[in-house]
Design goal:
Elements (H helix, E strand, L loop, with lengths): L1 E5 L3 H13 L4 E6 L10 E5 H10 L1 H8 L3 E3 L1 E6 L2 E5 L4 E5 H15 L2 E4 L13 E4 L6 H5 L1 H4 L1 E15 L5 E9 L2 E11 L2 E8 L1 H6 L7 H11 L1 H4 L4 E2 L6 E8 L3 E2 L2 E3 L14 H17 L4 H31 L9 H10 L6 H7 L1 H17 L15 E3 L2 E3 L3 E3 L14 H11 L5 E8 L16 H17 L3 E7 L10 H4 L12 E2 L13 E2 L2 H21 L3 E6 L4 H6 L14 H18 L6 E6 L10 H14 L3 E5 L17 H11 L2 E4 L6 H9 L5 E4 L1 H5 L3 H8 L12 H25 L17
Parallel strand pairs: 1-2, 1-9, 2-8, 5-11, 9-17, 20-21, 20-29, 21-22, 22-25, 23-24, 25-26, 26-27, 27-28, 28-29
Antiparallel strand pairs: 3-7, 4-7, 5-6, 10-13, 10-14, 10-15, 11-12, 12-13, 16-17, 18-19
Helix pairs in contact: 1-4, 1-10, 2-3, 2-10, 3-4, 10-11, 13-14, 15-16, 16-18, 18-20, 20-21, 21-22, 25-26
């Protein structure tokens, strides 16, 4: 083979090493525009898990790297006058210049041709079988063929600059420094003796207030020496093209064009806050090499590389993006206690969780657990510092919850004529007895024409009221769970089939007339709704009030108004579905007007001592939909009207929405509403484990956590979680106490075995001449 690599950074050099080692007859040329000893930046970071990967890929280069690194096990978070050190992490720092020299030496020794100070393009290698474009984040090759590669660049708002110092560190250290201008952040680590990296970051408003936009490189370094004078401990900041920039998150629709393939930052970038850029580039090289080792034509190998590698790259980018957003909104978390703040730093990307940290740093987790309990105690609740966050109590008005776990509202589509039957008695009864602090009904419709499907539950007549009264009484008699009724109106998504017959698809027969904010069908083939008149609005409001009065008679503890998922009230809130030209359309204040009318009318008759919540879609996942500013305005308006909780969901507003799914994927909006609008939130969305519940609560990203699908197959999810964490006083019907006792006994043994398995699965320590402390697998 004839291989040309354009770009002599870590990705291009490492790929050339692996290929030349295993295909010695190949002629491989690496062309780099800079000189061999040019480097911009200071150090790079690798975790123990990444070093494991490097060792498996190429032992000689791994040894060269590990003989030249600085190793640390702790992460230090210094904020608000306190330092928290969290052990068991396992990272190394290495000089970027040293890394490049080590890789170039290894490549040259294998017979790779290295050419420096030369610009190159694919046409310079007409005889090449493979051309690797490893030409960096500003890749000329990618940009030249951008119509093919389809790059997208998301330029993030925060400003950052790479600098260095001679101050030593024995931990990867985050400094958060509050000044009159705003909050400054320093990401610091030592990469060799007497040399450390300082990545300085701040938000755009602080950047402007500080005047950094008007300073040159030397002036900004001098300014930041003043900001971090205490932290620098007498050392100076060192610059090396340390210009202020905005981070570009780059993705590409394609990575391959003919025999040209993008590698490293040229195809995808990942934010420095999880130390992933060089790791990502070198793992790309491993992935591309592996694709060629599998055999086949160049085209087949390149296709294999993109297919096999893309998922891992996108996962890394997702974690990096979640992390960078946390740093962009650090002001949102600044009022937290130092311990809760530090926990948020550690868990910001969702890669590290409560259980993970409990293995790495049990003392820090115990401190966080106490901090959560102390805040609950300060609110007058009987909190126990021996229990994890999910088992701390919570109160809304006079309603007190034993724990933070919620059975999410889930439509069952099994109530003919809107009447909950035996299925619902079994369904809700089992989940009430399962230990959750709060139980939600499915969306319950306020009139026959408010239903989504013919199987939707309702509360508009005496028979339905009697059925719900029976279910509420059963829940109260057999559990400590509180019960919330969710009331809603389907709007333009009404008169559709049962979920398993075609979700949101119109009924083939038996449909009823439907209403919406505007006359826009959900699907092109859907029934066109009538834009609501004032008479319609008055009638629907009366229906909600009548259902609220019936809810009081049923004995529900809490009431929720459904303003999400494209249903009637959501259709007023979203600009995608509200095209009205009267006082109910246009600005977000106008779009809020009718949903607030409904809420006010319900709140007026619902008992003052009982709480109310509102479910909203915080984003439509579609161009032109709700903005974050709209979302905050909606949350604040409902809070001012008397809502006690915002139930934060997203999407389902329009049929062509493009959600980005993943673990806890709706959490950022709960976080935003809770900590900016200042109202309690409940989060939901692909939350599947007790570990995630604890992580969310401890990081102050929501007050309650709702789980849907896990409760479908395990009604006793919370009881099992209590056993997992050794919480013995969780409520349980007396008939089931023998089972609970057995569960608690067995759980202790099971958890000990699981912990041992996790410790065995952790990456080995690469710390020189020392055994690593126990830590969890990354």
């Amino acid at each position: 083979m004839r291989i040309a690599v354009i770009g002599g950074g870590p990705a291009g050099l490492y790929f050339s090493i692996l290929m030349k080692r295993d295909f010695p007859q190949a002629r491989i040329t690496v062309v780099e525009r800079n000189r061999p000893d040019d480097t911009f930046g200071f150090g790079v970071v690798f975790s123990d898990a990444t070093l494991d990967t490097f060792q498996a890929a190429d032992e000689p280069s791994y040894r060269a790297i590990t003989e030249s690194f600085a190793y640390w096990d702790d992460i230090a978070i210094v904020a608000k006058g306190q330092e928290h050190r969290i052990g068991g992490n396992g990272f190394c720092g290495c000089s970027r210049r040293t890394l490049l020299m080590l890789l170039s030496d290894r490549a040259r020794a294998l017979g790779v041709e290295l050419e420096y100070r030369r610009e190159a393009s694919p046409e310079d290698f007409p005889d090449a079988d493979l051309i690797v474009a490893a030409d960096g984040i500003n890749s000329p090759i990618r940009e030249r063929f951008r119509d093919h590669f389809r790059p997208e660049v998301d330029l993030r708002p925060n400003r950052f600059a790479w600098m260095g110092s001679t101050r030593p560190f024995d931990a990867f250290t985050f400094f958060f420094k509050e000044r009159p201008e705003g909050i400054f952040i320093a990401h610091c680590y030592q990469y060799e003796a007497g040399a450390s990296t300082w990545v300085l970051e701040t938000d755009p408003d602080t950047f402007a207030r500080a005047g950094l936009d008007r300073m040159n490189e030397a002036e900004s370094a001098a300014y930041l020496e003043g900001v971090f004078a205490e932290e620098l401990q007498g050392h100076r900041l060192i610059t090396n093209r340390s210009m202020w920039r905005q981070f570009p998150t780059i993705t590409c629709g394609r990575w391959v064009k003919d025999n040209v393939v993008l590698l490293g930052d040229a195809k995808a970038s990942a934010h420095f806050s999880i130390g992933s850029g060089t790791k990502l580039a070198m793992e790309d090289a491993i992935g591309l090499h592996k694709a060629f080792r599998a055999g086949g034509s160049v085209a087949a190998c390149l296709q294999r590389y993109e297919t096999d590698r893309r998922e891992d790259v996108e996962k890394t980018q997702h974690a990096a993006n979640v992390s960078l957003v946390w740093f962009e909104h650090v002001q949102r978390f600044w009022d937290f206690s130092p311990t809760r703040f530090a926990f948020g730093v550690m868990t910001r990307s969702k890669a590290i969780t409560w259980d993970n940290l409990a293995l790495r740093a049990p003392d820090f987790v115990a401190e966080t657990q106490r901090a959560v309990a102390e805040e609950a105690q300060a609110a007058g609740l009987p909190a126990d510092p021996r229990k994890p966050p999910m088992f701390q109590p919570f109160a809304l008005r006079d309603m007190k919850l034993a724990n933070r776990v919620v059975v999410s509202p889930m439509c069952m589509y099994s109530a003919p004529e809107g009447i909950p039957g035996d299925f619902h008695v079994a369904h809700y009864g089992a989940r009430a007895m399962g230990g959750a602090g709060l139980l939600f009904t499915e969306m319950t419709c306020v009139s026959p024409t408010a239903r989504i499907t013919p199987g939707c539950a309702g509360l508009w007549n005496d028979e339905q009221q009697a059925a719900w009264t029976r279910i509420v009484a059963l829940a109260h008699a057999t559990s400590q769970a509180k019960f919330c009724l969710q009331l809603g109106h389907a709007g333009r998504k009404g008169a559709t089939r049962l979920m398993w017959e075609g979700m949101d698809r119109p009924l083939k027969e038996g449909a009823w007339p439907i209403l919406s904010a505007s006359a826009i069908p959900y699907y092109p083939e859907s029934q066109v709704p009538r834009a609501m008149t004032r008479d319609d609005m008055d009638q629907v409001k009366a229906d909600f009030v009548a259902a609220t009065r019936r809810a009081i008679a049923c004995g529900f503890d809490m009431l929720e108004l459904h303003c999400a998922h494209g249903y009637l009230l959501a259709s007023f809130l979203s600009p995608l579905t509200n095209r009205r030209e009267d006082e109910y359309g246009g600005s977000v204040e106008n779009r809020l007007r009718y949903p607030l009318e409904i809420f006010d009318a319900m709140r007026a008759v619902w008992p003052a001592e009982k709480p109310m919540s509102v479910r909203i879609s915080a984003t439509d996942w579609a161009e032109g939909g709700l903005t974050d500013e709209d979302c905050l305005a909606i949350a604040r308006a409902f809070a001012q009207a008397g809502a006690d909780l915002i139930d934060v969901s997203t999407g389902q507003t329009v049929a062509d929405a493009s959600p980005t799914y993943g673990r806890m994927f709706q959490l950022p909006w709960s976080d935003m509403i809770r900590n900016e609008a200042g109202i309690a939130t409940m989060c939901v969305g692909n939350i599947t484990s007790a570990d995630q519940v604890n992580t969310i609560i401890a990081a102050n990203r929501a007050d309650l956590v709702a789980l849907a699908r896990p409760h479908l197959t395990n009604p006793s999810f919370t009881l099992h979680a209590a056993a997992q964490y050794g919480v013995k006083d969780i409520a349980c019907p007396p008939q089931y106490l023998w089972g609970k006792d057995a569960l608690l006994r067995n759980a202790a043994k099971d958890q000990a075995e699981l912990r041992e398995l996790k410790l065995k699965a952790r990456p080995k320590s690469h710390k020189p001449e020392a055994a690593a402390l126990p830590r969890a697998a990354e």
